[in-house]
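Hey, can you fold this one?
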Amino acid sequence: MENPDVTAIRRFNRFYTQMIGALDARFLGTEASLPEARLLFEIATREPVMASVLQDALGMDAGYLSRLVARFEARGWILRVRRDDDARARDLRLTEAGRAAFDVIDERQSGAVDDLLDTVAGQERRDLVEALTRARLLLDPASGGPFTIRPFRTGEPALIAARQSILYAESHGWGREVEVIESEVTAAFLRDFDPAREQCWVAEIDGVMAGAAFVTDEGDGLARLRLLHVEPFARRRGIGDALVSHCVGFARETGYRALILWTQTVLEAARRIYAAHGFRCIETAMHERFGVPLQGETWRLELAA
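Sure. Predicted structure:
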């Protein structure tokens, strides 16, 4: 019996290839097939470019690529141009006819996507774009652009709490107890939110949430860093370090005398980030608040000059 995950992806593949006309001999009513349109796009956006570079970029069989290039030459779409640095090598460039063919395909494809997006609107449209972007990032994390950090938007604190609960359940087996704590933290943050003294920052990659962190007012001149997390697909990019830097900078600029946090000894990556920013562990204690025995740690960073 096939794995349900495999079945779901195969079902989507069948749906999407039919929707975009991937099996049509003439892609979007043009002279090109879909593989030809894809190759033409790469040449148009990379020219001058060697065939070997295109082969690596597309993961295409060398023989098949050679046949497509020969077909483009026969149609008068491309020229082979000798490289200045290597007389034996040839770059591919589009001719005027090739550029015109590309422009037609590109315009029709943009129009087809516009028509597709017109079938959904508002939040559903944003959900669709985010879901497709997330799928790309999950399958190829390196394809993501640089991350950005911004203040939270409506609905995101609850999403952050839910996401952390899911990730901790997967990575450490922490259950409902963590979800209760995190839900209470985010509910209190929203209920008592003072933008002059508290904030939640969200890291994004290509519009997809990649991590988050909170700073809350603890009273008596103390701020607390809470709920730091980075999504698995976004790790090793420096996002956790950047989020902590935002929290420290905000707490310092706001006039807090110290920034404190509570973490667990097993969360080694987060502890390294805290230490790098000058936090030091001032207290440890065993507990079972997450349903399993853990050693909790209180860390503190002095901010006052």
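The mean pLDDT is 93. Let me know if you want another pass with a different chain boundary.
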